[in-house]
Amino acid sequence: MADQRKVALDKALKNIEKEFGKGSIMRMGDKADTQISTIPSGSLALDDALGVGGYPRGRIVEIYGPESSGKTTVALHAVAEVQKRGGTAAYIDAENALDPVYATHLGVNIDDLLLSQPDTGEQGL
Question: Which residues form the RecA family profile domain (predicted)?
Fold first, then answer.
């Protein structure tokens, strides 16, 4: 019975990898690459709070919080840091309220910024 469960589990894992790509599911004991390359947030306190020294490079990062809590400022600082290091950043403006002048003042090169202003969050992703 245990062999049948192992075969079924292995088959399910292979199907998930086939559908979503290698690394989409793995056993923690397989020693996946645990070193995370990061990009500084622009705030030493935030980098420290994140625990890895910044935002994980190459990942989608969602900034969430109540109105007027600083989400836009934090997100635009992240974009500026990515651009300073030669990277490309995409900004999904769910509130349709991006101010290009403010973004420029924070160091964002708006000419190189990829911008999406979707009608819904699902559409943005």
Answer: 35-125
Q: Same domain for 25 and 44? A: no
Query: Which residue's entry shows tokens 């992240």?
Result: 78
User: With DSSP H G I counted as helix, E B as strand and the rest as coil, what are the percentages for the chain, rounded to 5?
Assistant: 40, 10, 50
Predicted local distance difference test score (pLDDT) of residue 33: 61
> What pTM was estimated for this model as a whole?
0.70
- Which two three-digit tokens encode residue 57? 């490079």
Q: What are the C-alpha distances in Å from 84 to residues 31, 50, 104? A: 32, 20, 13
CATH number at residue 82: 3.40.50.300
